[in-house]
Design brief:
By secondary structure, the protein is an all-alpha fold. Among the domains are: 55 residues, no CATH class; 46 residues, Histone, subunit A. Helices cover 49% and strands 3% of the residues. It has a two-stranded antiparallel sheet.
Length: 153
């Protein structure tokens, strides 16, 4: 039994859902993507040849993955857009690989790139302006308050 078949069996056992013939190809392709991402290779020659045929490629991005991302995002891309997306995703993965090579052992985790402290002042009670002084400029007033037209009856 191959690792792929073991995973499918484990999924069926854990969920109680049987993977039917309509979905088996999609399930297998996604399992292969996970295996490729993890760098897993079958030990047998036949499985090795099969994995090379379905390998994601040097960049980690293939047409099947682009189609899968289209499906997830509910977008339909033209061939040119798919090609551009493949190139862009490849560049992103290469940049992430560059970042993964950096030595971050002595780097302290931070929430902001600059030293940041709370700039709020302490609350303090202060006297307000005098009511009569504020109401002096009101066009209309009643009982020590501004009088305004009724908006809701």
């Amino acid at each position: 039994m191959t690792a792929e078949e073991k995973v499918i069996t484990a999924i069926e056992d854990a969920t109680g859902i049987s993977v039917d013939d309509d979905r088996i190809d999609m399930v297998r392709s996604r399992i292969k993507m996970i295996f490729d991402y993890l760098g897993f290779e079958e030990k047998t020659a036949a499985a090795s040849a099969e994995s090379k045929k379905a390998a994601v490629g040097v960049s980690g991005i293939d047409d099947e993955l682009i189609k899968y991302l289209e499906e997830l995002s509910r977008l339909t891309l033209t061939e040119e857009e798919e090609k551009n997306a493949k190139q862009d995703l490849t560049k992103i993965l290469e940049y992430i690989d560059t970042l993964n090579k950096l030595d971050t052992d002595n780097v302290e985790p931070m929430s902001h790139p600059f030293p940041y402290t709370n700039n709020f002042r302490e609350d303090e009670c202060r006297p307000s302006e005098e009511r009569e002084l504020i109401l002096k400029n009101a066009p209309q007033q009643k009982d020590g308050c501004f009088k305004v037209p009724t908006t809701v009856e």
